[in-house]
Amino acid sequence: xxxxxxxxxxxxxxxxxxxxxxxxxxxxxxxxxxxxxxxxxxxxxxxxxxxxxxxxxxxxxxxxxxxxxxxxxxxxxxxxxxxxxxxxxxxxxxxxxxxxxxxxxxxxxxxxxxxxxxxxxxxxxxxxxxxxxxxxxxxxxxxxxxxxxxxxxxxxxxxxxxxxxxxxxxxxxxxxxxxxxxxxxxxxxxxxxxxxxxxxxxxxxxxxxxxxxxx
Length: 215
Known about the structure:
- By secondary structure, the chain is of the alpha/beta class.
- The chain has 6 helices and 9 strands.
- Strand 4, helix 2 and strand 5 (64-67) form a beta-alpha-beta unit.
- The protein is globular, with a radius of gyration of 18 Å.
């Protein structure tokens, strides 16, 4: 069974210029996802990008790369078309899609996801963190899903699970059929909130640096 990972990484970024190559504690952001994948049970690790500088970095890190068309890397481009493009070029049975903006991912998380998919006979798996109830309000200060005259206790409401975007795993046939990153019988990998943050803004970058210092 061929297990392949893909890390989409475009050269442009609105929030942080050249975000995927930005320095994070002496390493480019991209390196954390790549190194976690290379240390996992994944057979082959690919960076999928339109950017020549990112391709050179992928080579330095010792992983494979697939150059994608520019139309798949615009500000408005969704991720699924890149996954479908990748599946048309690369053979695999199971695809591990890792966000380049997930520096807190580890090989342990990747391996756990693979085992959950295989042992649970799932079609897809993705990472989540558990969120306990907190009172939420809309912009007009109307309670969302609760009543001020009968405020529930946190411990009386079942926790929910938040999709954190770190990793998605799917079988080839599920991806090709649905054209989606997850479909069919779906499971999840639960990780801690402190591991789930993504780098999308400079504020995220400051927060993640602090988390990494405290680990």
